[in-house]
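REQUEST
  id: r-88c1
  op: predict_structure
  target: HTH lysR-type domain-containing protein
  payload:
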Amino acid sequence: MDLVKHVRYFVAVTEERHFGRAAARLGMAQPSLSQRIQRLERELGVRLFDRTSRGVELTEGGRLLLAEARPLIERADTLLGVAARVRSGAAGVLRAAVPPELGSAVVAALVGGFRDGSPGVRLALRELGAGTQLTELRAGTLDVGVLRYPVDVSGLGLGEVLSRPYGVVLPHTPGAGCGPPGAPPPHEGAGGPVGLASLSGLDLVLFPQPSAPALHAEILAVCRRHGFEPGTVIAGQDPEFVDGMVLSGTAVTFATRDRKLPPGTAWHPLEGEPLLEQVSAAWLRGRQDDPVVRLFAEVARSVLTERGGMVPVMETAAARRTTLPGPAYGYTV
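RESPONSE
  id: r-88c1
  status: 200
  body:
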């Protein structure tokens, strides 16, 4: 009997609390799953579940074994991951990714910090959007990444979630003020706080809607709740296009404070910080015991706080805000 495989079946039934749902999740027939659980019970000499009309409940013995089952699966996943890297010749290489537009200073510090902490391991770093990172993490072709939220992180281990606020980029003519009517004058390339409601009537440049439909809708919903009804929502990714739309005086876009902006534009914080960028390191669950994965996650957290101006997300604050997984500049999924 393949013990690890049967323990995976046991954990799936435990999490679903129903043989039918667990079988669907595992991609197998329910009778076949029931037979495998019965075989595991015989092998262990322990009854794992009490069957009820609504599903299944763990027995006391099942609860005790579940505490050992999950670490066993995680260690097996780590072993299989290391074996795969050895087979592919990737031992001694950490395959990592960061999202677009993270900032040159942050990327340089991340590479340098990892190299200093693990000089014997080569960092193969790429710039990948969240969707591609998720696909590669789950396929085992990426060891660790830095994800922007919101994303589906099921099956992944996560580092500390960090955040920083988004502001709005508006046109600015030196000496003439900037922003919508009534906005305060700019200072050192940045203006005073701007309420979303004061932007009404202007167009809004966002990443293309098909890239992340739910997120696109969520951002617009937040804008409208705060009184900002864009004249038109314009799909834009190329920085030259986005810059041109802002410089035209007809459109705005969202960006973080450290975004490099062209002459003639200024960054303003949004009143109440209704939009946040949130990121964290992510890896396939079970890889947390890999020392180079842990090192990358720790270096990323340190660099993002010290160089990127990010702070840990507090649950109470996060519940009141919407996340934006990347400004219009270079946004990809």
